[in-house]
Design goal:
The complex is a heterodimer of chains A (about 80) and B (about 425).
Chain A (H helix, E strand, L loop, with lengths): L4 H16 L20 H15 L5 H4 L5 H12 L1
Helix pairs in contact in A: 1-2, 1-4
Chain B lengths: L6 E9 L6 H9 L6 E2 L3 H5 L6 E2 L12 H6 L2 H16 L10 E6 L5 H14 L8 H5 L3 H10 L5 E2 L7 H14 L5 E8 L4 H9 L29 E9 H6 L6 E10 L12 H12 L8 E5 L6 H15 L7 E3 L2 H4 L6 H15 L1 E2 L15 E2 L5 E2 L6 E8 L3 E8 L3
Helix pairs in contact in B: 4-7, 8-14, 11-12
Classes of the chains: A mainly alpha (about 80), B alpha/beta (about 425).
């Protein structure tokens, strides 16, 4: 079943918190994973795999580099679910 | 740069089966407590392990580390970080040029938990579910790398691997970094997190472990005639070493002088000690001579004494071979009777105990001796602690590892 944008954002925020300890409230649509949230490429890999499992989507490795902001990831996941 | 700078100990930290700090651990030793208990893990029954007890950490890591720290570090690195933070704080968090601050932390086995859980993940869930930090977590230099990151240490981060001599060897390596002028301050020690079914399986197949399942607290009984093997334990011990001039310039509290290092290898058998103790005694003699001491100056030895039938006698022979008649002037204790055997962390932890024995002038008694083996020709401290004399005294710590590694360290009281 497809999730709303808000549900995906909340789910991602939980995954980011689990991986990095970052306050889930910091994870907002306009935040950059690297520049704002200080997430390195290894952590990003874990976040992607956990997001795939949680939302039932596949995020190809080639696509990960295009996911600059949290909003990019939310939109990609939502589009893949549709 | 001088190559014979004096090295002193200014900070201590540990997490062990007796306590989550060096203070609580030392209190446990003086109380004669055993940190060995029956294990509650499902995997003990699942694999029908012949040994059901061990010395596990007294304070679980989730009481001191964050969830993310636990997730991103193997237990071997977690324990090292806990001990290193305590030692660093105990030393007064010295201000030091990062390029003059080093790390040397050894481990015997390394990230065995990460290696095997990630192998299970690969087999059961596929490559994409393997944790991206699997390799930096399982590598044996993970503890030293993480401690160098935590403290910003840039003079070099080293990892000695010599089985149960690893922790002592790393302290020797650290002292040599300072003596040779490569660093002013080095955080050094050993860590081990090998309470894993594969380690029990391997050691029991060697018949190296005590199988006294009905009485875990009395299973580790070095030098007793009924000893039947060592007791697996885990934890970490870390010290802060400093050049004497650096420590004095900042008015640091000095526990003891790190005085001498002796190292040798048996080249005799991959696991069995050379029975006459030729290699071990050479290491002890070097540790005395390189400290500018004579055998008569050593008043105490914290022995390796793991509670194995062969090893305990071989060490006793080696001590007498190294010290001759001077052996009669020193008292010897086996703290593994209380902590169990921390493998790659054992030499480091027992180095801390030797330092504290000099600092407090007290030697904790070996427990669980009801019938002292007559083959042990040593003044064994048991049935009550021993007070060490006032004035300038020195003590030694012995560590030996599979592979034929022998490490002896000497420390002097500091006044």
């Amino acid at each position: 079943m497809a999730s709303t944008e808000q549900e995906i954002l909340e789910g991602l925020a939980e995954i980011v918190n689990e991986e990095t300890g970052l306050d889930p409230a910091e994870v907002q649509l306009d935040k950059s994973f690297t520049d704002d949230l200080d997430i390195d490429s290894l952590s990003m890999m874990t976040i992607v795999v956990n997001a795939e499992e949680r939302f039932g989507v596949r995020i190809p490795d080639d696509e990960v580099k295009n996911l600059t902001t949290v909003g990019d990831a939310v939109r990609f996941i939502q589009g893949s679910q549709g | 740069m001088s190559t014979d700078r004096r090295v002193v100990v200014t900070g201590l930290g540990a997490t062990t089966p007796l306590g989550g700090t060096i203070t609580s651990t030392w209190e446990g030793l003086l109380a004669g407590r055993s940190g060995v208990r029956t294990m509650s893990h499902d995997w003990v029954a699942e694999h029908e392990l012949p040994v059901t007890f061990a010395g596990e950490l007294a304070q679980p890591v989730d009481e001191v580390l964050t969830r993310v720290e636990i997730r991103r570090m193997d237990p071997s690195a977690q324990y090292a970080i806990i001990a290193a933070r305590e030692a660093w704080a105990d030393a007064g968090a010295p201000e030091v040029d990062p390029e003059r601050l080093g790390v040397a932390i050894g481990t015997g086995i390394g990230g065995v938990w990460t290696l095997l859980t990630q192998w299970d993940t690969l087999k059961e869930k596929g490559v994409r579910r393997v944790f991206p930090l699997a390799v930096p977590m399982l590598m044996p230099n993970s503890p030293s790398g993480n401690v160098s990151l935590a403290l910003g240490a840039r003079a070099g981060a080293h990892t000695t691997v010599s089985a149960c001599a690893s922790g002592a060897e790393s302290m020797g390596t650290a002292a040599e970094m300072i003596r040779s002028g490569r660093a002013d301050v080095v955080v050094a020690g050993g860590t081990e997190a090998a309470i894993h079914p594969i380690c029990f399986a391997g050691f029991t197949q060697m018949q190296a472990l005590s199988t006294r399942n009905d009485s875990p607290e009395t299973a580790s009984r070095p030098w007793d005639t009924s000893r039947d093997g060592f007791v697996m334990a885990e934890g970490a011990g870390v010290i802060v070493l400093e050049s004497e001039e650096h420590a004095r310039a900042r008015g640091a509290r000095i526990y003891a002088e790190f005085a001498g290092i002796g190292m040798s290898s048996d080249a005799y058998h991959i696991t069995a000690p050379e029975p006459e103790g030729a290699g071990a005694s050479r290491a002890m003699k070097q540790a005395v001579a390189s400290a500018g001491l004579t055998p008569a100056d050593i008043v105490h030895i914290n022995a390796h004494a793991t509670s194995t039938p062969v090893g305990d006698v071989a060490e006793s022979n080696a001590i007498r071979r190294a010290f001759g008649n001077a052996t009669d002037g020193m008292c010897v204790t086996a703290t593994k009777s209380m902590t169990g055997h921390l493998l790659g962390a054992a030499g480091a932890l027992e180095g801390l105990f030797t330092i504290l024995s000099l600092h407090h002038r007290i030697v904790p008694a070996t427990i669980n001796i009801t019938d002292l083996d007559p083959q042990i020709a040593l003044d064994v401290v048991h049935q009550g602690h021993r007070t060490l004399p006032q004035g300038d005294i020195a003590a030694m710590n012995n560590s030996f590892g599979f592979g034929g590694h022998n490490v002896a360290l000497t420390f002097k009281s500091y006044s």
